Amino acid sequence: MTFVITALGFTSMMCGLAISSLARTAGSAMPLLVLFSVFQYLSSGVAFCLFNNPGVEQVAWLAPSRWAIASEGVTLDLGRLLGPMDKREPSVTDPLWHNTLGQWLTDTGVLFGIATGCYALTIRLLRQHEPPVVRKR
Q: 48 Cβ partners below 8 Å, 6+ apart?
């Protein structure tokens, strides 16, 4: 559990760096970071059922919190402990919470993939802020 929480912290830090590299000033970065935090909460899959909701589920895949909660869900076997979240289909649980090693590796791997993508985006965006003399190297 500690490993996944640390991975979420690292990934969130990388997302924060990408967001702050998008902004021109510190004042314009703060609203973006607040929106990102709200998006993280809503996309985590804990507040309400995300799976079996076309469109919503796919947007939630972009959130590091979705994959961290899924990885913790596999670790703790939340699919069995919490039971079904979808009241329309009581026998169906979140497929990202299936208690298998492969699912845990997938959830954690996507979390690190998001961190890597944010890192690459940050490098690319910071390169655009450099003076042209430095960029030629």
A: 85
| pLDDT tier at 73, thresholds 50, 70, 90 | confident
Q: Which two tokens stand for residue 31?
A: 């609203």
pLDDT in tens, 103-135: 999 999 999 999 999 999 999 998 887 766 665
User: Where are the domains positioned within the chain?
Assistant: 2-69+107-135
Structure tokens at 120: 């690459």
Name the residue with tokens 């208690």. 99
DSSP state at residue 86: -
- Phi and psi torsions of 73, nearest 5°: -60, -40
